[in-house]
């Protein structure tokens, strides 16, 4: 089990009690993403679906070790504010940029030269296919695209799963973590 400083542990434990209310990832999924980011030495991470900041804390703690930065997108203002407070409490706010609004609109407006080496998606399941189309333009070769809820919301994400599995530029596996996690690596 991965342990952090007492304040971060307290924040994570508190947020785990509201997991269903805020649609947070499971702790084991957080630990997996943390480990993957560190082992791949990722620097530029994009998250779609900030919620209360639970997953962002895991991502940012890994990025503190790799020297990277996190950009996270949240549609709801209330959640954006809660997440920002949690990032500050955990000492990761200095490496996080929080963008508020429609993820599709924000992705469309990103500069062409914006590069990411890791993307995590946990937002509107029916938009996963649209997120993929935009993220693909920015994801570097060897980069990862991880998407949560691919088993718990199988029908809603089916177009995305079919598309990424058929794309010869990606290797994809669905892990049987709580809710199901798609882990795709861009190979070309």
Task: Give a concise summary.
The chain has 188 residues and is α/β, with parallel strands linked by helices.
Structure characterization notes:
- The chain has 188 residues and is of the alpha/beta class.
- The chain has a single domain, classed as Rossmann fold (3-Layer(aba) Sandwich), CATH 3.40.50.150.
- It is 45% helix and 23% strand.
- The protein has eight helices and seven strands; from the N terminus they run αααβαβαβαβαβαββ.
- The chain has helices spanning 6-16, 19-22, 27-39, 54-66, 77-89, 103-108, 128-138, 154-166; strands spanning 44-48, 69-74, 96-100, 116-121, 139-148, 170-175, 181-186.
- A seven-stranded mixed sheet has the order 3-2-1-4-5-7-6, with helices on both faces.
- Helix 5 (77-89) links the parallel strand 2 (69-74) and strand 3.
- Helix 3 (27-39) packs parallel to helix 4 (54-66) and helix 7 runs parallel beside helix 8 (154-166).
- The longest helix has 13 residues, at 27-39.
Strand arrangement within the widest β-sheet reads 3-2-1-4-5-7-6
Distance between the termini: 34 Å
Helix content: 40-55%
- Give the tally of β-strands: 7
Q: Which percent band covers the strand fraction?
A: 15-25%
CATH superfamily: Vaccinia Virus protein VP39
Task: Provide mean pLDDT, rounded.
Answer: 96
Category by helix and strand content: alpha/beta
Determine and state the CATH class.
Answer: Alpha Beta
Gross morphology is globular
Instruction: Give unreliable regions as ranges.
Output: none
């Amino acid at each position: 089990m991965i342990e952090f400083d007492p304040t971060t542990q307290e924040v994570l434990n508190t947020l785990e009690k509201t997991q269903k209310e805020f649609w947070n990832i499971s702790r084991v999924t957080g630990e997996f993403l943390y480990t993957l980011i560190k082992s791949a030495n990722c620097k530029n991470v994009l998250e779609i679906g900030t919620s209360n900041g639970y997953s962002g804390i895991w991502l940012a703690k890994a990025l503190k070790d790799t020297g990277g930065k996190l950009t996270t997108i949240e549609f709801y203002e209330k959640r954006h504010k809660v997440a920002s407070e949690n990032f500050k409490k955990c000492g990761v706010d200095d490496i996080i940029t929080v963008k508020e609004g429609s993820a599709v609109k924000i992705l469309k407006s990103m500069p062409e030269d914006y590069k990411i080496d890791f993307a995590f998606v946990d937002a509107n399941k029916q938009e996963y296919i649209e997120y993929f189309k935009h993220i693909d333009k920015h994801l570097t070769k060897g980069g990862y695209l991880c998407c949560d809820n691919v088993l718990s919301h199988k029908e809603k994400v089916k177009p995305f799963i079919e598309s990424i599995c058929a794309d010869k530029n990606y290797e994809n596996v669905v892990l049987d973590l709580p809710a199901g996690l798609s882990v795709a690596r861009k190979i070309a």
